[in-house]
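Task: sequence design from structure.
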């Protein structure tokens, strides 16, 4: 079984997309009424990289971006956050970068994501062959990388390369139906990925989807924790999360948040949780710190720029001591 203490090296290779996010400005503005927008780095894997970097870890992102001004924006943003972009390859042709237009509002929230001809799906096995996996303690990925070829085959190839030298595999299910050809294909691919990974994070709907029955999600999560995975985090929204290992199972709640938007919580949870484990916090405390990070991010504009620093996280935890709800 994978030993969480190996994450103490605090250096991660992360596979997945980096994108540009547009937010109608000022916060609260509906997209159709906007005359100006705030731009920032986005994309689930890029967000996770930024979260870990802010907590003192080191990350290298592996992906493709469009060979144009938007792709260069993403690379420049990654570098400004300290993320290693050595393995970010510009993809020429008509492939375009992921773009999200997302409102900083909860009521009648709208997010529009442009993913047609996505550049990040062009990551291939040759890209993986350029990676020296030896400096890293684990590989992190999210489910969107598996939604199309050649990215899917490249990701599984990376899993095999990483496992061959003893790296842990960390997987955020992150099911987004619009990226997949069919639900059946997604369920099969996610189950295959889940069976290879050491730490798996998903919500109740995603695990139910993997199980082929939405009422069997928790059973699926437990099966993974007692067969191949070392830690499975079964998130339940406002009801908190159930964390399952081969030796224990415990439930944690969520922290209150004055939500400005509903997006970014999952990436922030993953980044805060993994960073906390890497920094030596016990498993349960790491889960709670990840939950606090999620509450912080939904209260701010943006995703990558909204990821909290350790000082901001500690201040939030101090201010919200005793306010954990289940």
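Answer:
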């Amino acid at each position: 079984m994978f030993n969480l203490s190996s994450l103490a090296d605090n250096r991660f290779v992360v596979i997945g997309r980096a994108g540009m996010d547009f937010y109608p400005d000022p916060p609260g503005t509906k997209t159709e009424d906007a005359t100006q927008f705030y731009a920032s780095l986005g994309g689930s894997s890029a967000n996770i990289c930024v979260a870990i970097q802010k907590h003192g870890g080191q990350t290298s992102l592996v992906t493709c971006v469009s060979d144009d001004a938007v792709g260069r924006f993403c690379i420049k943003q990654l570098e400004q956050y300290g993320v290693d972009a050595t393995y970010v390859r510009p993809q020429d042709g008509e492939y375009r970068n992921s773009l999200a237009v997302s409102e900083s509002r909860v009521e009648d929230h709208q997010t529009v994501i442009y993913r047609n001809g996505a550049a990040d799906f062009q990551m291939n096995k040759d890209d993986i062959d350029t990676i020296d996996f030896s400096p890293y303690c684990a590989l992190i990925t999210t489910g969107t990388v598996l939604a199309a070829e050649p990215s899917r085959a490249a990701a599984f190839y990376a899993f095999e390369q990483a496992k061959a030298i003893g790296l842990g595999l960390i997987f955020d299910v992150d099911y987004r139906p619009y990226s997949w050809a069919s639900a059946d294909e997604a369920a099969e691919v996610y189950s295959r990925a889940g069976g290879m990974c050491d730490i798996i994070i998903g919500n109740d709907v995603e695990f139910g989807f993997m199980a082929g029955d939405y009422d069997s999600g928790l059973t699926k999560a437990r099966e993974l924790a007692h067969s191949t995975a070392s830690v499975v985090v079964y998130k339940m929204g406002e009801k908190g999360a159930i964390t399952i290992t081969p030796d224990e199972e415990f439930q944690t709640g969520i922290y209150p948040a004055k939500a400005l938007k509903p997006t970014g919580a999952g990436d922030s949870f993953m980044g805060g949780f993994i960073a906390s484990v890497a920094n030596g916090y016990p498993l349960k405390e790491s889960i709670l710190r990840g939950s606090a990070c999620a509450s912080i991010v939904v209260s701010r504009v943006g995703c990558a720029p909204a990821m909290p620093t350790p000082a901001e996280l500690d201040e939030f935890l101090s201010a919200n001591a005793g306010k954990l709800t289940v």
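The chain has ten helices and 13 strands.
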